[in-house]
Each structure stands twice: as structure tokens, then as C-alpha cells.
């Protein structure tokens, strides 16, 4: 699963890529002009569990970030340059809201609402074009041979087409699971979960106020909004931990915004974490929300899924409240769950299995 980090030129994408992955975009592994990096999902629960278990190793969940070339407004609509974005599972759109005389803006002035609309329209037109080509093809096929399946597909894609024509992104349309099966392979851009990163100047509180209406509008339509100053975050990332804490105290924040962004990115992929804890390792494992205990066990090792007997489970909150694993065991807070158990975000799990 990966997220595409997109936006107009010079908005802070490469800076955000570096904050998330620790990699300089130009030096990161790349293919077909797209840079790739792995982002650590910063989860304070893992820090707390690590403090409790003092393990030899601590491992956070990870997600892949793809950085395609800049979006250029008024490129040929629906052309191949959007293909790398189609292949991603979700989108992080970086938008410039910082003022600077040294950084040019491709549309001349700083206007995040306009930039969001510009990119959204590119996506809408590309998707619209896709529906038109697809409908043309289905109609041709239906003229040759009747097919209830194709009729159903035609109905769903016509619905997509009408929504797009009304300038409504497909992620705001309710689709049944059956509909989704018919359209998933078309990789619609406007269907992907969207995180908008508003890259603000040094005065974050003032910027949040200034762009509050825009943020509210985006949130109301189901998108995630993260305010972040890439310049400040970059400075924070270069400090040692004592200096970083002092700077964060000055800023009145408890963690870097890029850490929150990593969690938003994880969540918008529909993932949750369960944890395994012991003296060797404390580790977060990503699973799709709704996964059963054996499926979660299979993430650790296929043998654990095959030989699954039970999952001994305690919620993160209950374990932290108990103070230690020993105290939680004495208070009999762990539950033995069978193969139908649906794993919850924050479950601390030990798998019992047959070899
Ligand atoms: P990209 O072209 O979207 O990948 O943007 P970059 O991350 O390369 O940033 C473009 C320029 O804007 C660089 O000179 C950055 O130093 C600068 N920049 C990025 N974020 C900020 C910010 O939050 N504040 C200021 N003042 N400059 C920034």
C-alpha cells in the first residue's frame, strides 16, 4: 500500500517527503521518474510500550510514499503523467500557504484554495475522460453481445460520469461493495482518500485562523487536513531530542506535525495497528481494519495463521492502566479470543498456535 505525495511545483513536496522518509528525494530509489521512500508511522503508543517492556528492538509500522513529478496545470488532460498517481492507494496533496520572495509560485501568487481546486479539476477531468472512454467501449461490446454484467457496469460508470460532470469527486459518492468491485480496476483519481497538507509560514496559529474556512470545507467533505510548516518541521528534525523538546515547548506543540501526518496517512489507507510486545521486540503490525485474529497472525508468519489456536489479547489502554504486563495478567485482563475475533486498533496480542 502506498501514498502519492503530489502538488504543484515548489510547494514543499520534497521537504515533506524528507520529513516522512528521512530521504532526500533526488537520492531516493526511483523508477520512471518517481521517487520512493518508506515512512515510519510515529505512534506514541509504541513509545509507551517500549518504555514498559524495555525491548532490544522497537519497530514502528511503515508505509510507502511515492513522489511523482510535479503537477503542471494545463497539461494535456488525462495524459500519461497522471498514471503514477493512479497507481497509489491514497493521496497527500501538499499546498503552499507560506509567503516567500525567494520561492516562485507557478500561478504567481499564494492562494491555497485556488491551488486545491486546480489540482482537483485536473483529477476530475482525467476521471471524466476515463468514464467516457469506458462507456464508449461498453456500448460497443453491448451492441455485439448482450450481457447483464456489462449492463450493470454501464449503470455504475454512468453514475460516476454524472457525478464527475457535476464536479463531484467520486470519494464523496456512496458505492456498494459490488459497485466498488466493478470500478476499482479503473483507478479513479478522485476516488482515492485525500489528505491535504497546508504548508504554512512560521506563524502557524495565524495561518490556521486564516485558512480555517478552507480547512472546514475540506473536512466537511471527508478529506483530512494537516497544517504544517515544512520549514519549521525541517528545523525540528535536525535538532537533538533535548533541543527539539525546548523548541516544541516554545511553539506550544507536543509533537512534530509531520508525526501526525504519518498517522493520518496510515489511517487513510484503512489500516489499524496491533502490537506484539516482549523482551526482544515491541512492534506495531499494520492490518486492514476488519481483519480477523488468524489474518493478523498471518502478518507475523504464515505458520501462525495456519496453526492458529487462540489470540491472547489486551487493549493498549487496559495494559497501560494496569502498569505492567504482570499486573495485567494478575488482574486477568487478557482475553482469549478465537478465530472469529476481529482485531481492534491498539490490541496487544500474543498468538497461541500449533507448529
Ligand atoms: P517541491 O518543488 O514541491 O518539491 O518543493 P520543495 O520541498 O523543493 O520546496 C521548494 C522551495 O520552497 C525550497 O526552496 C524550500 O526550501 C521552500 N520551502 C518549502 N517549504 C517551505 C516553508 O514551509 N516555508 C518557506 N519559507 N519555504 C519553504
Description:
The strands form three sheets. This protein has a seven-stranded mixed β-sheet, sandwiched between helices. A three-stranded mixed β-sheet has the order 4-10-9, with helices on both faces. 43% of the residues lie in helices and 21% in strands. The protein is α/β, with parallel strands linked by helices and 355 residues long. The protein has three domains: 184 residues, Rossmann fold (3-Layer(aba) Sandwich); 72 residues, Obg-related GTPase Ych/YyaF, coiled-coil domain (DNA polymerase, domain 1); 64 residues, Beta-grasp domain (Ubiquitin-like (UB roll), Roll). The longest helix is centred in the middle third of the chain and has 33 residues. The chain starts with a strand and ends with a strand. The structure holds guanosine-5'-diphosphate. The site of guanosine-5'-diphosphate has 15 residues, from helix 1 and helix 9.
